[in-house]
Amino acid sequence: MIVGHIGAAFAARRRWPHVSLAILIVASLLPDLLRVLFLPFGLFSQQSNVYTHGVPWIVLIAAASGLIAWRALRSTSAGVAVAVLVLSHVVLDMSSGTKELWRGGPRGLDLDASYWQYEFALEAVVLFAGWWLMRGGGVGRPWRLWRVPVLLLALELGVMVAAVYDRPYAKRCWIYPFAPCDDNNPLAHRWWAFWQPVDLTARRP
Ligand SMILES: [Zn+2]
Questions:
Q1: Tens-place pLDDT, residues 61-103
Q2: Contact at 8 Å (CB) between 3 and 155?
Q3: Taking the domains of the chain in order of start, what are their residue ranges?
Q4: 128 CA distance to ligand 1 middle (Å)
Q5: N or C: which end of the chain has fewer CB within 10 A?
Q6: CA of 196 to the centre of ligand 1 (A)
């Protein structure tokens, strides 16, 4: 999940109108930003997920970032908003990814990989709802424009399309997994990619 988190930041802006939108957006994406910081240390993604998205670490990250925001900005609402958004990140990620909430704990629904259409719809709903809430709460003009959620959704669509291209050729169409990719209509038409070899033995999945 990417833009769904930003939708949560937009909604938070309505609740906490005096906290800067930039800070709210960074807080909503903080667990993913921290995961990027782990990369140079050679931690595999599964391990860095535990430390940036798993309990108890995520609770510590929420508390620490909330405290830093509270002290640095001298604002209780900034501290509360940051902590709540960091926690909301993990809740929203449970829909898209497969990460464990804690070691041996419940796993995410993995909509990203299996039912990306649901994932896209969910992100669109969260994004538009958050943006709509923010829009009614007196935010600056550029953020009130329709192109804000539309551009963000286009970005998300690009990510999802890349994920579909990542599939084997037999499963690479809009409609999969609701129906097989059998080339009978545009939605079931398989996407050819010049950079990937085509497995012609998989013509009828
Ligand atoms: Zn995440």
A1: 999 999 999 999 999 999 999 999 999 999 999 988 778 888 8
A2: yes
A3: 3-166, 169-205
A4: 19
A5: C
A6: 28
